[in-house]
Amino acid sequence: MRSRLLLSVALVVSAALTTSASAVTTLNVFMGSQLRPEVFQPLFDRYEKANPDIKIKIETGGATSEAQNQYLTTVLAARDDTLDIFLIDVVRTATFGAAGWAEPLNSYLGGTDAYLKSFLPGPISAATYGGKLYAMPAFTDSQFLYYRKDLLTKYKAKVPTTWDELSATAAKIQKGEGGKMQGFNFQGAPIEGTVCNFLETLWTAGGDVANVDSAAGKQGLGFLVDSVKSKLSSPASAEMKTDDSRQQFQAGDVALGLNWSYAWAHFQGNSPQPTTVKGNVGVAALPSFGKNASATCTGGWQWGVNAYGQHKKEAVKLLQFMASTNVQRDMAINGAYLPVRKSLYNDPKVLAANPHFKALYPVVLKARPRPVTPNYPKVSEIIRNNVSAAIAGSKTVDTALKEMQRDLAPLLK
Q1: pTM as predicted
Q2: In terms of CB atoms within 10 Å, which of 151, 297, 319, 370 comes out highest?
Q3: What is the predicted pLDDT for the residue at 64?
Q4: Which residues, at least 6 apart from 219, have a Cβ–Cβ distance to it below 8 Å?
Q5: Would residue 97 be called left, alpha or beta, if left means φ above 0 and alpha means ψ between -120 and 50 degrees?
Q6: Whole-angstrom Cα distance, residue 189 to residue 195?
Q7: H-helix or E-strand containing 220?
Q8: Which domains can be identified in the chain, with CATH numbers?
């Protein structure tokens, strides 16, 4: 009798444990190894503590956006449901949406328009394709004009607001410093940063990517090419990558340069390489041609939900937590990530940790997405290869723009 009773108790306990275990949902989250998973882990831990029925497992892979995209493409093309959430570059969202790999989020968010009102418009535009929201912005980024405050003071120059002013100021500093430094640095290698540098000069000339073979296209690309020809920029600009620009500015070899927000922390000393410019760096909106408006590219990363996943509702709930004001504040303070919520650019705690965010806000508020199209990988390749070739001198500006226009036209319909 006693044995039967013990057996019954054991079965009840076993059933309870099984029920308890089955009630726990594990969300598998993929992100690139370079995206600092250590910043996200404490936030996931906090979410698990508040939601005992959820466990979050991070999977990392790929040191670049391209490597991560290749892995995710393979997994999702096979309709694999292993991953629940993935972190993707803003330029990938349309491709994932069009392929049916990313779950549209609108139906999970209720009144989507009301929910998204407090977000920056750039990241939301980049997360939207065909009128549907296919991703939740994780953090944003943009390109900015970095300048040497000490050198502008020394040569009694103002922060340039036009590209002509930038050229004149850079030339003045370069001459005054005995030609020892670059007056102006930008990216010209066949990389994504080069796409942005070209689009920014195109946009600030009043142009649009749908019509690159135009007066605005010639003015924009011509400016970059002429900067190299006049030796205002490095003769190696056609091989200049984003982090090359960062390291050269940090070493004191550049007066004015274009780069992303990540460079700021490096300039101030939070970097593997020594810095010679700490305390002497200013940041501003990109110049424009004439009276045209300033413009910059939207960067950053977005959370996508696997359309084949088994835990979509739970995944979206986690992403709402990650996009909440409190979490975005923590990411800004602890990781120097640019928040996707407008209010945090006036938040005292955020500004205490990142004083430069106040100057960055007007820039990120007006940031523009690169072409939102499932054909973006090919669009990017066409732009960056032609721009780099023109900067290297292997193509004329006219030829590069004509070939760009010809090849982009069928992809941007």
Answers
A1: 0.85
A2: 297
A3: 80
A4: 201, 205, 207, 289
A5: alpha
A6: 9
A7: helix 215-229
A8: 2-141+300-365 (3.40.190.10), 142-297+371-411 (3.40.190.10)
